[in-house]
Amino acid sequence: LVVMKENTKPQGQVLIEMGSISPHNLVFGLQLQLEEKLFDIFGWPDGDYQFSPTLDVPAQTVHVDRSVPTLIHDGVHRKYLRAQLDQLLSPKLDHVLVHNVDAALRFDDLEIEEEARAALDGIDGTRTVSEFLKESGLSRFDASALVVTLLATQMVELQPRGATPAKPVGRADDAPRCPRRAQ
Question: Where are the alpha helices (DSSP H) in the chain?
Fold first, then answer.
């Protein structure tokens, strides 16, 4: 502790130099810390946010190896309560879930379990949110978290029941695909 207080180097570098931690374990710990801080944002009930394009972003030493849609899904799963999901979806229950046919918004980048991936077939442009939640084969929480994720990432859109789709309605297999990220 004394060495770290007297030194201007980052704590992790000091710990490596002291032999207290390996570089691999430091990166692992920093990744966990980064994810935890990132997922904490999903627990905020509200806030004021400002984007500053002129702000210099420091060089990253740690990266999160997940796509943005997957991070959103994981954040919703970790931090939202069933009541929050119900509150978000309640005004949308009678709207039809429709695939966004924009090729950049395909499901490929969403890393989810096989059951959830299979439930995506239930989004065919004819089912309402309520019907999807009941018929997806997922728990109410998992189905709700999936719908919130798909809406937040704009992978699906909502249309009033009986409305003529503004865009062609398609299934995930009908639209061009984005290349998968290299793992």
Answer: 2-6, 11-18, 23-40, 68-79, 82-89, 114-119, 129-135, 140-152
CA 164 vs CA 44, 96, 157, 158, 160: distances in Å: 37, 11, 13, 12, 9
Averaged in consecutive runs of 10 residues, what is the pLDDT profile of the chain (183 residues)? Answer: 70 82 86 87 84 80 83 94 95 94 74 93 92 96 96 92 61 38 35
Torsion of CA 83, 85, 86, 90, to 10 degrees: 150
pTM score of the predicted model:
0.75
Task: Output the six-digit token pair for 10.
Answer: 């980052």
149: number of Cβ within 10 Å: 23
